[in-house]
Please model this.
Amino acid sequence: MQTVLITGCSSGYGLETARHFLAQGWKVIATMRTPRHDLLPVSDNLRVLALDVTQQDSIEQVLAAAGPIDVLVNNAGIGLFGAFEATPLSTVREIFETNTFGTMAMCRAVIPAFRERGAGTIVNVTSSATLAPFPLVAAYSASKAAIEGFTASLKFELDAFDVRVRLVEPGYGPSTSFTANGQQRMQGLIPPAYEPFAHCVFAGYDQIRAVTYPADVAEGIWRAVNDPSDRLRFAAGADAVALVQAA
Model:
């Protein structure tokens, strides 16, 4: 029985991915900043552990508690909508600490064991914001685009050790709590000069019909883990697939 460690399992994509792998008979280590055992079904194959990917000691503690794993899914992320002009650099750094450096830190922590074993899979979850430009998400897009470049390069480094590296690119997911979790962080990021533009942008989002659901991302991660080919990128969600096809 294989073991997967998933970050950011308190809601949305991470939570659904944990449920999916459990249903497929895997051992699942579901991590989140504040553990909640009521979110997932009771199972002997499930462990819920505390993890803050921005803290090295937290990473070390969770990996020591987890023991050997076969797959790492870097899903933990912070959303941000707002005019870049109005976004404090402290907020930009906060986004990068989780979305970029947190993902890198998790990769760096598991690579030695994967390399020595000559096996293992790393899946980094990014966004369709890396597939096409979207307004009012400049800082967020940059944090995810950095992981796209990082992952593509890392794949070359680890192929020689039979360690697989994958990207999953979810589309726009209005059904998740992604943006809701960042509401406080986004206060004041749409100044008056940007309000007419922002109104049109948000009205456009409301008209989107081809969207991404947590189950789409869970399935995309499952495919990325189990695909036997050398493929790097896996779009998840109807809108993300459409963007790839239109490229």
Notes: The two ends are 39 Å apart (CA to CA). The longest strand covers residues 164-170. Residues 177-183 have pLDDT under 50 and may be disordered.
